[in-house]
Each structure stands twice: as structure tokens, then as C-alpha cells.
Amino acid sequence: MLGGAVEAGESYADAAGRELAEEAGIPAAQVRFVLKFLCHGTISPYWLGLHEAVIEGDLTPDPREVAWHAWLPEPALREALDQWPFVPDCREAYARYVALPGGHRSSELATDP
After folding, report:
1. Taking a C-beta distance cutoff of 8 angstroms, is the pair 4, 23 a contact?
2. Is the dihedral of CA 14, 19, 20, 22 positive or negative?
3. In the Cβ-directed half-sphere of 39, how many Cα atoms lie within 13 Å?
4. Which of 48, 62, 81, 88 is most deeply packed, by most CB within 10 A?
5. Rounded CA gap, 47 and 112, in Å?
């Protein structure tokens, strides 16, 4: 799970694509909007937009942004969320993602609601 902030004048989808490029080395990835909610956050409340993308090929994460990465099957990810240090914001976003009806997959290209 990657994250970052939306810049002034930038859409949530554009920010998600930019963060994929900056953090994982995936240029011009098409992202799909999944959900947006008011996250109470560890520092202060903010709007969190969650997007997903299909990644093909290798990742080239920026070591200044990403300390560790690997693909985890969903059961292993759930176990990692219980055992590894994640910020509460990440845990809340994941819980909302898997709770969505229809297998939590959006079929539309990203649009901000």
C-alpha cells in the first residue's frame, strides 16, 4: 500500500498515479477509484481516496520512499496487518476496501466523486 498527498489543483486519481510513479517506479499507471472517506488519522482528520491499479512488469521502488516491498496473497496481507507495524489509517483503509460489496473491485477508470 502506497500513499501520499494530493497537490493543489491535482485530482485524487492523478495523485494516485503520481505516487505510484514516485514510490514504485511505475510511470503512467492507470488507477481506478475505489472509495473516499473522512479518515480521522493519527495526526488530524483528512479525506482519504483509495484507488487500485493493475501492475504489469517489475517494480523499481525508490529506496528513499519504500523500505521493503513484496507481493502478498490476501491471507498473508491480513496476517501482516495483524503482526507488522502499520499506521491506523492504512488499517482503516484496508478494512473499508475489503468490506465493499461485489468483491471490492471497481471496473470503472478513476474519477473523483
Report:
1. yes
2. positive
3. 20
4. 48
5. 12
Per residue of the chain (113 residues), what is the pLDDT tens digit? 678 889 999 998 899 888 888 888 887 668 888 999 999 888 889 999 998 888 887 888 888 888 888 888 888 988 998 898 888 888 888 899 989 986 555 444 334 44
Q: pTM of the full predicted structure? A: 0.75
Q: How far apart are CA 109 and CA 30, in angstroms?
A: 7
Specify the residue for cell string 494530493. 6
| DSSP structure class, residue 103 | G
Residue 99 to residue 88: CA distance in whole angstroms:
16
Query: CB–CB of 28/21 below 8 Å?
Result: yes
C-alpha dist (Å) from residue 46 to 38, 60, 71, 92, 102? 6, 29, 28, 13, 26
The β-bridge partners of 48 are 37
* DSSP type of residue 53: E
